[in-house]
Amino acid sequence: MKVAVAGLGFMGLTHLRAWRSMPQVEVVVVASDDPVRLSGDLREVSGNLGLPGERLDFSSYRKYSDWREAALDPDVEVVDICLPTDLHAEACQVALAAGKHVLVEKPLALDFTTARRILDTARASGRTLMVAQVLRFFPAYRALHEKAKAGELGPILTAAFRRRCAAPRWSSWLLDGRRSGGAAFDLLVHDADMCIGLFGRPAAVSATGFGRLERGIDWFTANLRYPETAVTIAGGWCPASDYPFSMEYRIIGAAGVLEYQSAAQETVFFPAKGGRSKLDLDTVDPYRSEIEYFLKCCCENSAPELCPPEDSAAAVRIAECMVESRNQGGEWISCGF
User: Fold this and answer.
1) Are residues 106 and 224 in the same domain?
2) Which of 101, 234, 299, 316 is most exposed by smallest CB count within 10 Å?
3) Mean pLDDT split into 10-residue runs, the chain, 337 residues
4) Number of domains the chain contains
């Protein structure tokens, strides 16, 4: 499978490392409007996970400064879109219309209407579209999904998800809400997608918080309305430049509590009858797992059932509702699914 990676920021480098490690894949094209990065010098690339950049050998790749050329290259079978968020929709449409399989970084789009148009184009193209909602491939979150679906937690009564980090000053476009959508779309969309995978689509969303992107803060506390489960998503960006990235969940079911904290690097189940047990999880690279699964779907020309783009589009709607509700002082906003 011949691959083009469009965008060489933090996620572009992360994806590129995974693609280059797969013997059945040939990266043939890279695209970036940054000539230094396009030369293979990615040493200055950084992100919220603290992974270092590096210099890569791009001598065998075709290099384009315009992502459109990468998407339309006749030799390319897969386009991996790691561009700024405001370019996701157009890049997806162009690549799908050109008959390419598409992996696109989250979020799929900056509004639900546009996201649904992309789904329509993907269906018409007959190609595989998957959004890189990588949380579905993190061992701790896979364990949550598996235990919940197997009924091991009993009926889930309440679920709380948190995710926060310093303001993403490593890329200036991220702090431009018109381009990134802010923390709801760039960060908390992960947890919105996880809620959809676990509980389905909520009826409505209410959110409060504080947003001043020019000061590096964009914070939400959101409630998602489900018939029988109280669900909250909290977190965002804060202005303290050295504030570490962290994520966690706490799921309370009739049979016990499942809790994960990235800072402690452990997932623990507390049975209702007493005691505690630490889950022994796989130590896989979730980004590689995500891309391996996407590649399998491409080779089989099958829908990505573990990470459906329909769910990713619905997560965009939840993020949209979070922003709208916060702007209206916490009013409940119907998702309209």
Assistant:
1) no
2) 299
3) 96 95 96 96 79 89 98 98 98 98 98 98 97 98 97 97 94 93 98 98 98 96 97 97 95 98 95 96 94 96 96 98 98 98
4) 2
